[in-house]
Sequence to fold (425 residues):
Amino acid sequence: MHDLRAIRDNPSEFDAGLRKRGLLPCADEVLALDRDWRAAETEAQGLQAARNRLSREIGEASKRGETGLQLHAQANSYKIDEAAAASRAAELRKKIDELLAALPNLPAEDVPEGPDETANQLIRTVGRPPQFNFAPLAHEVIGDKLGMMDFARAAKLSGSRFVVLKSGLARLERALAQFMLDLHTREFGYTEIAPPMLVREETAYGTGNLPKAAEDMFQTTNGMWLIPTAEMPLTNLVAGDILDEKDLPLRFTAWTPCFRSEAGAAGKDTRGMIRVHQFQKVELVSIAKPEDSAAEHERMTSCAEEVLKQLGLAYRVMLLCSGDMGFAAQKTYDIEVWLPGQNTYREISSCSNCGAFQARRMNARYRPGGEKGTRPVHTLNGSALAVGRTMIAILENYQSHNGTVTIPPVLQPYMGGLEVIEPNG
Fold:
């Protein structure tokens, strides 16, 4: 949510941020509604004060034995007018909130301007893609040859964009998630959380998924929402709270299934596991002081990168442009892993600093030391990593000409010492 006071103070800056996002400016519209809302609020408060004065006069008249009929009539008139002004103020405030709730976060100053991924900036490339003496296969072909990745049976159960993993690949998925959780909790100080996977509407609203991204999520018949990412419940752990400055930053991690309708991805990545309706992900969330959030963003990104480094996978880090960022983000790094089967880099993580945008929607605050008032915290989130896409990267980067897949050394203890996945193993 946007700060209405900041829009009043810097309307041109607000409009510039919207233009950078590729949107039309609307500060004038917001401020016109704001003026009408404040006028209605002032009118209602003035009428309430006048009615209170009349009430005292009626009381004094009663003590003198007077009926005060005229005063009673005037008080009733004030009451009716006050209710009308208060109702008008409430309606105007609702319009302001609905307008602001539909607008994305404004990009940070160092975010490049551009309409789509073509304007993203390369920050760094780490590692070298492997060289093969044979034509590398795509992950879905490898999985089929192993006899452990079954899209046909998944379609019989649930329709398209689902997969059944078996044997070694089912275990590899679990091993990857456990490795990531251990790394983030033991090495980087994140607190492991096992959150609900069904959330209320206000929880989805708090992270900015509602109302904008409703079509990309699954809703149950009783109005609950299946989480598209653990960011949603993890970030909302502090919703409505006033945190102590000394407790910040808070760092949470969770391994959960994620559910996405992929409504905006019709026809994209229809083969394999790149884009499915249900997938596993290890998520990172930080709750930080405003002055620390930029450094926390860099730290979070490095935590996600460390997973790829330990797995021996080549990757690159991209700074997303204004037109390619998510709704709630003010700055995002995408980590893209090398996939030999596609001969390109593909996204495996997004790490975003959302500033105070989500905190205002959730009413999450902290009290700075020595101050009476409170301030919004800053929230950050990142995939560390998408488990299915990490498995894809391992299958394609560690494949052999004979159809086997070597397990990275760091994962072997999680696989019971297994070093190679063999067909039907």
The first strand starts at residue 121 and ends at 126. Residues 4-101 form a domain with the Helix Hairpins fold (CATH 1.10.287.40).
